[in-house]
């Protein structure tokens, strides 16, 4: 492990950092390119500030984790549906996260999706470079390292394949998808959109709303993003992080992770590991959902630690709404009252998305949308 004095010496100056970031970006080979080159130490741009590391919250070592919810038969058994609705709302209010099993997506499909995302990131650099881009507004399919590369205090140890439809009404052109993972992506997306509808129905019922309420808000002006993350084995995991602590810019997020682990959720002021469960998908609630439910449901901080094993692969699917929609979002009237007035102001998807991209991942939050 590096000594503290060595670490400080490696952090470099601001001008060095700017040049190093540009040089790293222009190589277009991401974190994996560093590993492939045989690097035994991480570049200074990846080293978290000493203050951040020293003041990091503890990881919980108790045997606790987010709830695991079985949603089998929720479509055709009223009693079972009512039971699951209660479990979902308890998990939502206590954790902001849960794992869902018996969701109807075949295990083989999940395994294939993980494998194809891994294959994309491990194919020849010259093939991947064709997708390398940082134009998140105009490009629909991008490969990159850290959307906030030039804004963050330290680069996160991961590469990403991004498919974005918030500008295209939820439609993706199959011909734009990388051939190595196109078929798996299209099948997976179809499954996840259907599962998202079921989750939104359960949440609506648990909030005392019409079953279709949240689905109409999310899917009526539909738009989504899919990100296939690749976290290479890290030679100095204690100095960096896979993904900074953050809350999602979404209504809900559905995550598929492999069996390596590393995902943590903030609970009772400690980081709690979300251990991989074979066949499970992770559901969490984003900032948009917290705003429109007027803080009834919470968007909880989570992160991914770097590890000296890997690569870790995950696939995050964000239900985000349509960027160009003129629909105004704000706290749902049925969830507010004189005793519980709106906490947040109205906004559009364009406004909250634009704000998201002006901030580093760890800085983005919803205080900007609170009523003064």
From TrEMBL:
UniProt entry keywords in alphabetical sequence: Iron, Metal-binding, Oxidoreductase
Keyword Repeat: no
SUPFAM superfamilies associated with the record: Clavaminate synthase-like
Entry keyword Metal-binding: yes
GO MF assignments: dioxygenase activity; metal ion binding
Domain Fe2OG dioxygenase positions: 222-321
Family: Belongs to the iron/ascorbate-dependent oxidoreductase family.
Protein name from the UniProt record: 1-aminocyclopropane-1-carboxylate oxidase homolog 1-like
Organism: Spinacia oleracea
């Amino acid at each position: 492990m590096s000594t503290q004095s060595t670490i400080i010496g490696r952090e470099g100056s601001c001008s060095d950092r700017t040049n190093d970031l540009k040089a790293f970006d222009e190589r277009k080979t991401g974190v994996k390119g560093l590993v492939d080159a045989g690097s035994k130490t991480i570049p200074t741009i990846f080293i978290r500030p000493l203050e951040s590391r020293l003041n990091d919250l503890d990881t919980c070592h108790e045997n606790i984790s987010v709830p695991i919810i079985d949603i089998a038969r929720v479509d055709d058994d009223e009693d079972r549906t009512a039971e699951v609705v209660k479990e979902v709302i308890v998990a939502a209010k206590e954790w902001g996260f849960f794992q869902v099993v018996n969701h109807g997506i075949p295990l083989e499909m999940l395994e294939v999706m993980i494998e194809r995302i891994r294959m994309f990131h491990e194919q020849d650099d010259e093939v991947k470079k064709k997708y390398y881009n940082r134009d998140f507004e105009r490009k629909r399919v991008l490969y990159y390292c850290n959307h906030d590369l030039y804004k963050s205090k330290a680069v996160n140890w991961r590469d990403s394949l991004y498919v974005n439809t918030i500008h295209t009404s939820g439609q993706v052109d199959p011909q734009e998808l990388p051939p190595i993972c196109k078929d798996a992506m299209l099948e997976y997306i179809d499954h996840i959109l259907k599962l998202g509808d079921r989750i939104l129905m359960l949440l609506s019922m648990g909030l005392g709303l019409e079953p279709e309420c949240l689905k109409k808000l999310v899917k009526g002006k539909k738009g989504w993003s899919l990100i296939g993350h690749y976290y290479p084995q890290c030679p100095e995991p204690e100095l960096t992080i896979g993904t900074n602590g953050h809350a999602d810019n979404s209504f809900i997020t559905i995550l598929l992770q492999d069996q390596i682990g590393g995902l943590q959720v903030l609970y009772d002021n400690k980081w709690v590991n979300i251990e991989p469960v074979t066949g499970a998908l992770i559901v969490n609630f984003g900032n948009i959902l917290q705003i429109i439910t007027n803080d009834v449901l919470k968007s909880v901080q989570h992160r991914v630690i770097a590890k000296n094993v890997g690569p870790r692969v995950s696939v995050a699917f964000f239900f985000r709404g349509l960027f160009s929609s003129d629909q105004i979002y704000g706290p749902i009237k049925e969830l507010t009252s004189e005793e519980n007035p709106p906490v947040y102001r109205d906004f559009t998807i364009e406004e909250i998305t634009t704000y998201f991209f002006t901030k580093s991942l760890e800085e983005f939050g919803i205080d900007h949308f609170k009523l003064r």
